[in-house]
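Chapter summary example: a protein plus zinc ion.
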Amino acid sequence: MLGAVFEGNGKLVLKDRFKPELKKDTEALIKVTGVGICGTDLHILQVPPAHPAKQNIILGHEFTGEVVEVGSQIPDFAPGDAVLIDPHPGCGLCEACRSGNTDICIPLLAASGEPGHPATIGIFSDGAMTSYVTVPREALYKVSPKVPSHIRALAEPLACILNATNKLKVQPGDSVVVLGAGPIGLLFTAVLKANGASKVIVSEISDYRREAAKACGATLVVDPRQEDLEAVVKRETGGGANVVVEAVGPLLPQAIQLVVTRGTVLQFGHDETVEPAIPVGVMLKKEVQILGAFIGRYSFERAAKVMESGQLPLDQIVSHRLPLSKVHEGIELLRQGKGLKIILEPEEY
Ligand SMILES: [Zn+2]
Ligand SMILES: [Zn+2]
């Protein structure tokens, strides 16, 4: 089977690999039907890399597929089941998992060999930019096969966002600002609108992405190079937004300026090469609540329900569906800012 193998130093090579086999009775073999290219994959392929990854593994951590074979210790799943895959599966047994913190599962963190990074499938072990992958039972979630595969492939980012929005508790009448309209900013826009936000103002420099933000429910889009975003937000919200979501990386200081007194800022954009200077005086006088969010935690079941309900315009977030053999074309489109979420579909089984 063809697999996109990370060979280090920015190199991703399409290679022939053996179809994997079950090694434990707690594993399942999955036929991949769709896998998203994530910003993290681009970071891994930067030189020098902006995100660690294990060499000689198949990339691809945002994926969905169909169960082909299950080990004897997975009684609840059967061949043919459509599944969502949590690529950071907590073991369920360690002290962290038993305290409800599966995102900091102790053996999962230890297995990556990188401090602070869980051993994500598709980053630290073979992932889904190929036809078949084995996963542990903790990674499996059922989903209706009626949900199209390219939508199911959004499960991992959606689960991360549902974990984040759960903290924000947005109510009808609330105003929200989303900084950045990449796939993550778009998912926030759609979810917070569904949560009841009355105004969702999205700031984004790309024309193409601002259009996508409107399709995802933004009530106003702003090009921050053309307009004074702070003035627009003050005018539209009467003093600041109840919630500001940072979905870019370096914009926490601006988010603090845009939020209303006693409002909430969420840092989700992930760029560890930046250390923005926080306007401490503004933050404390406004009593701003600053939250962080990273990966999902008990949010895949909800992601499945959201997808099955059809209540979010998730199809607006997928800009391209490409055969796996065009993975390099997909990466190039994203590097040039010409795509939103790109889903690869393996052509051979
Ligand atoms: Zn990702
Ligand atoms: Zn654990």
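Key point: The first strand starts at residue 2 and ends at 8.
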